[in-house]
Amino acid sequence: MRDELDHTVSTPDRQQLDAIRGGTTAEAGRAPDSGEDPAFFLSVLTRLGQDHFGSHDDLVLCLESQTRRSFEWVILVRPGAIEEADRLRSVLDSSPFLGGRCHFLYPGTDDRSDLLNAGLAEARGQYLVVLDDDDLVTHDWVEQFERHADGVSILRARAVTMPTRPRHRPQPHMSSEGVLASPYPPRFSLVRHLISNSSPSHSLAFPVRPLRRNGIAWLSGLAATEDWDFLMHSASVMAVVDVMAATAIYRISPRGHSRSMIAEGRQSWEAAEAIVRARIAERPYTMDGKALLEALARLESTRPGVRTSYTTLRVRIAHRTTGTALYWPLRQAHLLVKRVFVRLGRDPGGPNER
């Protein structure tokens, strides 16, 4: 299953995308330009903050254990983490593997997006990925991306969550508080991502050349969800390929919250989500005929028991999009699905549901 690919979801017409990207799929195998280094397949961007619980050392172990070493590590130092950067540099200098492929940048800003844009400008890999300084990856993380790369498509690996809690004894560390879970869909769904983000940043690798040619960047000033905005902007002009290997481990609180939600607060998080949804509503998105036919085929084979779960999802989507530009397009999509179910004798909303 780890070798499976899904090119059916969010896969715009290939010729149309080639024109948008400024090149063809065949050109992806040519010598890189725009500052790309053929020695690096992947640029790993990490925003470095203060480390109180050993998560940076965990990152070093994750990257040192990679089965493919065709990557560089671009460390984006926040203004308040200069001392931590010096400590980490001394650790990396003693690493025979990582020492020669780490690049420290000091952009002089604490803005989440501006830090990443500085990394994008300096990235030398064919692809880039954002690996936050408190997350983990498996030993074949780089390998799985590299095996499925075509140079022009977004790569999406599977992600799992790990509930953790900071501990101070016997030394500061992040302690696991539960079992790994897989709350994210194994395959990319463009429709689902119109509503909320279901892809942690380190489960996504973006081709650098199409990003630069299309002027795609992280939106400055967002307190959170900048990764969702960046993904949806990219997915409007690039296909998404599903890498079915689970290689990204997302640390969350025991209550299921991300570190950024805890740090910024729910109000700031929801305000950022509203900005991203407004930007999503301004962009056109494409789903090809094959994707639509396969979605309908899945509906046809669905058990009658899906009625309750579908209705629950529909109500949730309607609640979160009412009053936004997304409401009516998504309502029309619901009516299309409803007509299909009716033809199959499986009305998802019941006889009186509209």
Q: Characterize the quaternary organization of these chains.
A: single chain
Strand content: 15-25%
- Structural category: alpha/beta
Low-confidence stretches: 1-33, 349-354
Secondary-structure element order, N to C: HEHEHEHEEHEEHEHHEHHHHH
Number of E strands: 9
Number of helices: 13
Concise account of the structure shown:
The chain is α/β, with parallel strands linked by helices and 354 residues long. The protein is 39% helix and 17% strand.
Protein architecture, described:
By secondary structure, the chain is of the alpha/beta class. Helix content is 39%, strand content 17%. The protein contains 13 helices and 9 strands. Strands 1, 2, 3, 4, 5, 6, 7, 8 and 9 form a 9-stranded mixed beta sheet that branches. The longest helix has 17 residues, at 327-343. The model is unreliable at 1-33 and 349-354 (pLDDT under 50).
Task: State the main characteristics.
single chain; disordered N terminus; globular
